[in-house]
Design brief:
The chain is built from 18 helices and no strands. The chain is an all-alpha fold. It is about 65% helix and about 0% strand. The two termini are about 35 Å apart. It is globular. The longest helix is centred in the middle third of the chain and has 23 residues.
């Protein structure tokens, strides 16, 4: 048994996905899930259903009228996106209180990262030979930091170390603080949690390797999450788009924009996700 598995087995207050999400994940294992049954299950959890409808009514989806039912939501945003929003809503319901963590701030950063990652993957798919999976990328990006929350549950008496980790300028530095003082890091912990939640392996790998996208075990989606996390961090610190365009570049940004000015314009367009993230919180 690994040290991480031992920590999980010794912790009694681990986050548990809502029943509707667990049932939905089981339904999705079927070759042809019944849409009517999916919607019926979602409607049994009014909190999650309301969150999904609130998100579906954001300007991002371009609906000219208010979406009032999940059937209407499917018609506007599609079945795959509906499933993603249900799982995303369920995740926030699974973690409602963590001592020492400002959850609204944590989730806002997570949802902004997820929205950026999904948009990048959609844009890359327009021209790239390698095709990305936007909905899985969204969930992987949403959960990239979930291990940070679990670390607080694992080590309730390590307040000073976790405060140091929370104050780290970047998540990469945070990871180093965790490994140095606690022996494990939030990427490892997040991978184990998503595995226990029975989420797809692609999501588990994004959570594990988003800070090491060139790792031999990482898949192609990890680098998108890594890029999105950097952009979300800068936006939430009110960094100028032009400054981010200058500092945050890699081979993906070269595919997205022909020059630095075009990249800055794209980054500026991501600002809409700041307000839309509030629909989930």
């Amino acid at each position: 048994m690994s040290d991480i598995q031992a920590l999980f087995n010794a912790t009694t207050n681990l986050p548990v996905l809502p029943k509707v999400v667990e049932e939905l994940l089981r339904l999705l294992e079927e070759d042809d899930p019944d849409l009517k049954e999916v919607i019926q299950k979602i409607n049994r959890d009014p909190v999650i259903a309301a969150k999904v409808l609130r998100q579906a009514n954001t300007a991002h989806y371009g609906s000219t009228r208010q979406i009032k039912t999940l059937d209407e939501a499917v018609a506007i945003i599609g079945f795959a996106r509906l499933v993603t929003l249900v799982i995303a809503s369920g995740v926030t319901e699974a973690v409602t209180e963590v001592p020492g963590v400002d959850l609204p701030t944590f989730w806002k950063r997570s949802f902004v990262t997820a929205a950026i990652a999904r948009k990048i993957s959609l844009d890359l798919n327009k021209n790239a030979r390698t095709k990305y999976l936007p909905e899985l990328v969204y969930l992987g990006a949403l959960l990239h930091g979930i291990g940070q929350l679990v670390m607080h549950l694992f080590f309730p008496n390590a307040g000073f170390v976790l405060d140091q980790a929370n104050a780290a300028p970047t998540v990469a530095e945070r990871k180093n603080v965790e490994r140095t003082h606690l022996g494990v890091d939030h990427c490892q912990v997040g991978q184990e949690l998503t595995k226990r939640w029975l989420l797809p392996e692609e999501i588990q790998l994004m959570v594990r390797f988003y800070l090491e996208p060139n790792h031999a075990e990482a898949d192609q989606h990890a680098e998108i999450v890594h890029l999105a996390e950097q952009l979300a961090s800068g936006m939430l610190q009110a960094a100028q788009a032009s400054k981010m365009a200058e500092e945050i570049t890699n081979h993906l940004t070269e595919k997205l924009a022909e020059d630095e000015d075009a990249w800055a314009e794209i980054i500026d367009g991501f600002s809409v996700f700041l307000s839309e993230a509030d629909a989930f919180i």
